[in-house]
Amino acid sequence: MAYVITEDCIRCKYQDCVQVCPVDCFHEGANMLVIDPEECIDCGLCVPECEASAIIEHTDKDGERWLKLNEEYSQKWPIITDKHEAPADGKQYEGVPGKFEKYFDPTPAD
Ligand code: SF4
Ligand code: F3S
Questions:
Q1: Residue ranges per structural domain of the chain
Q2: What is the best residue among 8, 10, 12 to mutate for testing ligand 2's pocket, by most ligand atoms within 8 Å of CB?
Q3: Range 3-87 has CATH code 3.30.70.20
Q4: Does the global pTM surpass 0.70?
């Protein structure tokens, strides 16, 4: 089992999740984060930290879809261990449906 990040993170990217993870298993893309499911110890600490409700268990509805994305991009994007500036316009993207199709960016963070 593992926790995974869904498209709800895209363009919100608040990063409060990163600050509580005991095993540093978050990886950063240009406009979202993913969790390395191999490293996640299922502590659940990150879930209530995310104001965008973007973190779910991979066994939840639609979890398999996001598990694949988290597996793939945790191998391609760098580890993030500290919160830095979040997007200034993040609030306006909270809960917007279909963000993956509209905005997903496979570019790794700088
Ligand atoms: Fe890290 Fe725990 Fe969240 Fe997994 S569930 S990503 S170990 S804080
Ligand atoms: Fe994304 Fe939520 Fe973390 S918006 S960066 S999963 S706190």
A1: 3-87
A2: 12
A3: yes
A4: yes
